[in-house]
Amino acid sequence: MTGFARRAERVEPSAIREFLSLAGDPAITSFAGGYPDATLFPIEELHQIYADLLTRGSAGALQYTASEGLPQLRALVAQRLTADGMPCTAEDVLITQGGQQGLDLTAKLFIDAGDVIVTERPTFLGAIIAFNPYEPRYRSVPIDDEGMDTDALQQVLRTTERVKVIYTVPDYQNPTGQTMSLTRRTRLVELAEEFDAVILEDTPYRELRYEGQRLPTIKSLDRTGRVVHLGSFSKILAPGLRLGWALSSPEVRDKLALLKLAADTQNGTLNMRAAADYLSRFDLEGHIASMLPTYRHQRDLMLTMLEEHFPDGTTWTRARGGLFTWVTFPEGLDMARFQRDLLIPRAGVIVVPGAPFFAVQPESNHARMSFSGVPDDRIVAGVSAMGALLHEALSG
Ligand SMILES: Cc1ncc(COP(=O)(O)O)c(C=O)c1O
């Protein structure tokens, strides 16, 4: 087939799709998924809510609604954002199909072909997939224990023309698990002001906090309306609902809402109604708190196992929240090849090799490992088997 638009050249299957299909095989131990633990979904409560919605003759739950989202849900999200230091009203909130749609719409709004998006290095693969059709150029800045390196960012901003958007996942980043310090958050806002860039703040893991202080969002430090703040119910309620939100200045919100109208008219009314009912009838904060010990335990067990079994010269991050640790192997170890030739055939384990998480200049000696939803015995057996193979590969 010919005649595709130029942007179609940037639409390619992700390199990880092939082996992610293995994740459903019961013989495989998967540290590759980014899924929340399905055993933690509030299934009883949601069952009750959907049953009520569909039996009480509330046909409104099946009707069209505003493309900005169900007013009741926008108001409840605004209440939560206000409580998190971002005073706002229902009108400021746009409901999206998960955080992912917020990434797409924001890029659609700000990026012309050739404009620059700055990402962390590494960054969320799904964001690169969302941005690519708008034909951006990328620059990337390293991320460390304090999050995005703002000195490196300043250097990039000084030396690069047409930086439109700075994309960051400041809380328990995907894939590294790292968190941006308050000093760097403040500095990031200053730099965005100085160089007139938009900050796209993506926070799906923000509430999965296992230790440390809750830090102010970047949006809460924004005095000039240049932050688009994205959030999601995927990790705190259930990703299948496809519900997220964008908080931005009224001007940006209006344009994002029109782009959303063009893309999909609105989110499903039924799911928005169900989420609104969940928030008003049940205790979401209590539900989140009840999930944290499970994730914290899974994280701790994985980190202990890495310590015991992974060879010297291998390092990993200690995420204070979220679902991931990022492992760095000695240079020269190509994780994709190691996985294909040794890890899958000999240990039945999969991880996500790190290269696709780099917007530019991919590095092959990393892996993202998720502890979410993996039973204890599998974490123990999987990490130790992987460690043994790493010793073998590195000594050979
Ligand atoms: C950093 C980040 N942003 C956005 C998303 C999109 O999630 P959703 O569309 O389910 O809200 C994810 C999902 O894994 C993510 O890790």
Commentary on this structure:
Homodimer. It comes from Intrasporangium calvum (strain ATCC 23552 / DSM 43043 / JCM 3097 / NBRC 12989 / NCIMB 10167 / NRRL B-3866 / 7 KIP). This is Transcriptional regulator, GntR family. Keywords: Aminotransferase, Pyridoxal phosphate, Transferase. One of its GO terms (molecular function) is transaminase activity. By secondary structure, the protein is an alpha/beta fold. It folds into two domains: 6-42 and 286-395, Aspartate Aminotransferase, domain 1, CATH 3.90.1150; 43-281, Aspartate Aminotransferase, domain 2. The chain is 40% helix and 15% strand. The protein contains twelve helices and 14 strands. An eight-stranded mixed sheet has the order 2-9-8-7-6-3-4-5, sandwiched between helices. Strand 4 and strand 5 (147-148) form a beta hairpin. Helix 4 (98-110) packs across helix 8, helix 10 runs parallel beside helix 12 (376-395) and helix 11 packs across helix 12 (376-395). The longest helix is centred in the C-terminal third of the chain and has 26 residues, at 284-309. The protein is globular and about 65 Å long. Bound molecules: pyridoxal-5'-phosphate. Pyridoxal-5'-phosphate binds at residues 34, 98-100, 124, 126, 169, 174, 202, 204, 232, 234, 239, 244.
